[in-house]
Amino acid sequence: MKKNTPHFQSQRGGGKIGCLISFIVVAIIAAIGLKIFPVHRSNNQFIEAVEDIANRAGKLDEGTIQAQIIEKAKEFKIPEAQNSGAINVSRTVSKEAGMCTVRINYAREIDLYGIVTIKLATDKNIAKPFIIM
Fold first, then answer.
1. Digit-coded pLDDT (tens) for 46-81
2. How many CA atoms lie within 13 A of 124 on its CB side?
3. Is the pTM of this model over 0.85?
4. Cα 4 to the chain's mean position, in Å?
5. Is residue 105 a contact partner of residue 97, using CB atoms and an 8 Å limit?
6. End-to-end CA distance of the chain
């Protein structure tokens, strides 16, 4: 008497290859993310710090603002932002109020394990009003 066996018991493990390919794809995506995420995060933190500095522009001159921004670039380990022309600060002042405008423009190269290099460009204008006291 022949025993009835379900269909899935007679298959030969073709799912193992699919599982292995899925694992490899996930590992590659994770490895790329480990390279890109820290650079992207430090850029975002740097921009937030620049916005904070621009908010306090009423009490600071352009040279001091620029020096503080460059110090933040050093803190977040962004040497590209420390290059000449990467940060431009301007202030316009009227009798009661003013505007501080900071332009950030630089590109960071991210080496993906020697296979390819991608550029993460940062081009941002930050304009913050301030009141003269």
1. 999 999 888 887 777 888 889 999 999 999 999 898
2. 16
3. no
4. 59
5. no
6. 99
Q: Can you list the positions of beta strands (E) in the chain?
A: 87-93, 97-112, 116-131
> Domain ranges in the chain?
17-131
The answer to whether residues 99 and 130 touch, using CB atoms and an 8 Å cutoff, is yes
Q: Which tokens sit at 63? A: 């040279």
Q: Check: CB of residue 120 under 8 Å from CB of residue 39.
A: yes
Confidence check: pLDDT of 86 > 90? no
pLDDT at 2 over 60: no
Q: Is 77 left (phi over 0), alpha (psi -120 to 50) or beta?
A: left
Q: Return the axis-axis angle of helices 62-75 and 14-55, rounded to nearest 10°.
A: 150
